[in-house]
């Protein structure tokens, strides 16, 4: 009998190059002496690869998203405030509903205001600042892998989990991080083993109180 070799998998770089090349004629606006084939050169190629990868999602035959989180085994995948312990020379902010005994703020007022809101709002069961906890959301910027550390994780009385980012100005890659965090929450919710999660970018501490007042 004739033996059939296993199907080969194309190298990712070649596959992405083909996908990027397929849209050159309709998606590129070449200026000056630039030509469509320049997209295969860096830094343009890296940006094109990043955009394609960021928008690739697993779907079923009906087109419904099927993306699931990849959870590392053991302590690398399941972090706990039980193991958070570190020394600091910075000022400590007193807390009551936090799983830790204090908070180290990265701002002069805003994170402190958020902590007060989380400590006093009736909808909050517990919360923690994402400091030395190891909770990261992977994302890409200009084709390179990066890690995003949101500010707070909140456990509501209803059982829902909130991922909160406090940011006065939406600059740099804040919107890229927001999209990655929302995608992460959707994948975790689709998995179903870790409860319901949602991400919220807060641009003023007062908005956090409004969010908690109106959240289901």
Short description:
30% of the residues lie in helices and 17% in strands.
In terms of topology, how is this protein built?
Blueprint: H1 12-22, H2 24-27, H3 44-54, E1 93-94, E2 102-103, H4 110-120, E3 124-129, E4 137-141, E5 144-148, E6 152-156, E7 161-166, H5 174-191, E8 197-202, H6 205-214
Parallel strand pairs: 7-8
Antiparallel strand pairs: 1-2, 3-6, 4-5, 6-7
Helix pairs in contact: 1-3, 4-6
Description:
By secondary structure, the chain is of the alpha+beta class. It has helices spanning 12-22, 24-27, 44-54, 110-120, 174-191, 205-214, and strands spanning 93-94, 102-103, 124-129, 137-141, 144-148, 152-156, 161-166, 197-202. The strands form 3 sheets. A 4-stranded mixed beta sheet has the order 3-6-7-8, with helices on both faces. Strand 1 and strand 2 (102-103) form a beta hairpin. Helix 1 (12-22) packs across helix 3 and helix 4 runs parallel beside helix 6 (205-214). Mean pLDDT is 82; it is low at 1-12.
Counted beta strands:
8
- Oligomeric state of the chains present here: single chain
- The first-to-last residue Cα distance is 63 Å
Strand order, main sheet: write it out: 3-6-7-8
Low-confidence stretches: 1-12
Largest sheet: 4 strands, mixed
> Structural class given helices, strands, pairing?
alpha+beta
SS element count, helices = 6
> What order do the SSEs take from the amino end to the carboxyl end, as H and E?
HHHEEHEEEEEHEH
Task: Estimate what percentage of residues fall within beta strands.
Answer: 15-25%
